[in-house]
């Protein structure tokens, strides 16, 4: 088919109304790529004309028990499309987790055990429901159809894609030429993720930019099975608190959605003034024109801290409550003035007659994980006892009650008793 004929075939067969254009604008917000956009417009127009919702899929492997704000970038987009009236499908990859996603990896990812997958999956949907509307969300597990494939079905599925095409994938290509091992089972991952789209008959699949190859696999396999091919939408990867690496628990630059309100608020306030606007685009539910006006005000002289407070309060309220967001703001203001929060952990320790060393105290109260970390914080001036900075590693505290602080957000009120 010639290019003009192909374009004509993909042209919308239903009118592109103002509502369709509004839905397209919602879809485009913050996205990296929407492919092919003309097919998505045609799907939106058909849905608008027929009243039949589109099926929109997001798959997440439960590789860890908790979800952080980086994960919610795609969940937010799913919620926006859900609010347009479409059927969203939250797919838990309990089968694919047993393979291990090789995306972006330069080594084979160790597969999880079934027990690990089950334990992690138990919390995933509960946390995702803080973003999605549970009453309008279809939750599925890909073991439903992947287990049923069996060896014969797996071989037949594998016959629908070539090794040459698989090796075009960047991480496989780079590992092969670097002489780094690639296990055969890793080739199965994109095939199984693509087969999920066949099983669910999805119209659109969402993912991070690192998932593009896998999302395109879904289009290919749907065509192989005689289905209308899904469109794909990729979202940017959100940088963590360091402003450099993508948000990750392993890099300790993350904000977990189940974290305490005060910790969540404080972490969001630590985001740089520049990165804050990306957080607004990808995490906030405020209209883009409102965000644009706020950014213009800050560029015109308004304190960026005001905008950051608005973002932090919105996120804390979403995952906790408005009251928690207000309390977190007050806690943050109190800390910024050098005050001590009203609600801090308490501990009681027994000590020798000559007192307890500051390093041991920090470790025993859980303010630091090790004595070496205690010494590092002391050397950097990051430790306070009763409001005064302490840098002396040899300091010993006697009997009594003390408020000990490490960094900006860790406090403990400790009572020391001579034993």
Automatic annotation (TrEMBL):
Q: Name one Pfam family in it.
A: S4
- E.C. number: 6.1.1.1
Instruction: State the protein's purpose.
Output: Catalyzes the attachment of tyrosine to tRNA(Tyr) in a two-step reaction: tyrosine is first activated by ATP to form Tyr-AMP and then transferred to the acceptor end of tRNA(Tyr).
Gene that this sequence comes from: tyrS
Q: Where in the cell is it found?
A: Cytoplasm
Q: Which family does it belong to?
A: Belongs to the class-I aminoacyl-tRNA synthetase family. TyrS type 2 subfamily.
Organism in which the protein naturally occurs: Aquabacterium lacunae
One GO BP annotation of this record: tyrosyl-tRNA aminoacylation
Q: Know the name of this protein?
A: Tyrosine--tRNA ligase
């Amino acid at each position: 088919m010639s290019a003009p004929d192909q374009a004509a075939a993909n042209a919308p067969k239903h009118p592109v109304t103002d509502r369709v254009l509004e839905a397209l604008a919602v879809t485009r917000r913050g996205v990296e790529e929407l492919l092919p956009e003309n097919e998505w417009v045609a799907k939106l127009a058909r849905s608008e004309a027929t009243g039949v919702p589109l099926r929109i899929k997001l798959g997440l492997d439960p590789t860890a028990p908790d979800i952080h704000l980086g994960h919610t970038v795609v969940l937010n987009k799913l919620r926006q499309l859900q609010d347009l009236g479409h059927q969203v499908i939250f797919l838990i990859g309990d089968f694919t987790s047993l393979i291990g996603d090789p995306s972006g990896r330069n080594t084979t990812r160790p597969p999880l055990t079934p027990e690990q997958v089950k334990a992690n999956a138990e919390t995933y949907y509960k946390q995702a429901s803080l973003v999605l509307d549970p009453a309008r969300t279809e939750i599925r597990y890909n073991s439903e159809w992947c287990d049923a494939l069996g060896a014969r079905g797996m071989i037949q599925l594998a016959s629908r894609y070539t090794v040459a095409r698989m090796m075009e994938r960047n991480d496989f290509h780079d590992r092969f030429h670097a002489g780094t091992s690639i296990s055969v089972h890793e080739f199965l991952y994109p095939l199984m993720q693509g087969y999920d789209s066949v099983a669910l008959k999805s119209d659109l699949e969402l993912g991070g930019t690192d998932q593009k190859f896998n999302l395109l696999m879904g289009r290919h396999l749907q065509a192989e099975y005689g289905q209308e091919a899904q469109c794909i939408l990729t979202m940017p990867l959100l940088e963590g608190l360091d402003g450099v690496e993508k948000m990750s628990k392993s890099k300790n630059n993350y904000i977990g959605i189940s974290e305490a309100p005060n910790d969540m608020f404080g972490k969001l306030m630590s985001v740089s003034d520049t990165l804050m606007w990306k957080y607004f685009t990808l995490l906030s539910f405020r209209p883009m024109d409102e965000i644009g006006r706020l950014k213009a005000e800050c560029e015109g002289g308004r304190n960026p801290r005001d905008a950051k407070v608005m973002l932090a309060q919105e996120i804390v309220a979403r995952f906790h409550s408005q009251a928690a967001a207000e309390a977190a703001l007050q806690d943050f203001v109190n800390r910024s003035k050098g005050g001590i929060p009203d609600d801090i952990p308490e501990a009681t320790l027994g000590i020798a007659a000559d007192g307890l060393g500051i390093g041991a105290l920090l470790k025993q109260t859980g303010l630091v994980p090790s004595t070496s970390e205690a010494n590092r914080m002391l050397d950097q001036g990051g430790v306070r006892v009763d409001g005064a900075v302490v840098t002396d590693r040899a300091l010993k505290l006697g009997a009594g009650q003390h408020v000990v602080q490490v960094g900006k957000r860790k406090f403990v009120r400790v009572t020391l008793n001579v034993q």
